[in-house]
Amino acid sequence: MLEPVQMWRNKGKCAGILRDEYMFSESSAKTKEGKKFCTGCPVMDQCRTYAIAHDEVGVWGGTSRAERRALGPDITKIIQFEFYRHRLLEYRPGFGSLFHELEEKLRLDENRSADSDSDLPKSA
Q1: Percent of the chain residues topping a pLDDT of 70
Q2: DSSP string, 29-50
Q3: Phi, psi (degrees; rounded to nearest 5) at 11
């Protein structure tokens, strides 16, 4: 289940600490430290999914940006769409065309759903 970031972020192991030191670093040594720190975090899945949707830099949910990007554009688009559909995708610079694309997909999905509902037999 997708939740707003405010619902889970403060439950993370990194809550309340200066995360910039290694969590948002792209250096391999700092990334290794950050990934180790994430081990056993109760919100690791939410954190990783959030980072995929928002193309975050550094370690999130025990993964580096390169590892998340290696999942491929199809997985990223699916996750971004779900975040958008639930109104959880936060706007970032460069996301304008993404938001337009996701809005169009959402509109098409809603139209398909309405069309399939009209094919159902009417109850008396």
Answers
A1: 86
A2: HHHHHHHHHHTT-TTHHHHHHH
A3: -90, -10
Which amino acid is it at 17? I
16 DSSP 8-state letter: T
Q: Tally the domains of the chain.
A: 1
In order of 14, 23, 26, 73, the CA distances from 9 in angstroms are 8, 14, 21, 25
Whether residue 82 is contained in a domain is answered as yes
Q: Range of 84's domain?
A: 1-116
Q: Is residue 6 part of a domain?
A: yes
Residue at 121 is within a domain = no
Provide the pLDDT for residue 100: 85
C-alpha distances out from residue 68 to 73, 115, 118, 119, 124, Å: 10, 36, 40, 40, 51
Which of the two residues, 75 and 119, has the higher pLDDT score?
75
End-to-end CA distance of the chain: 36
In DSSP terms, 60 is beta-bridged to: 63
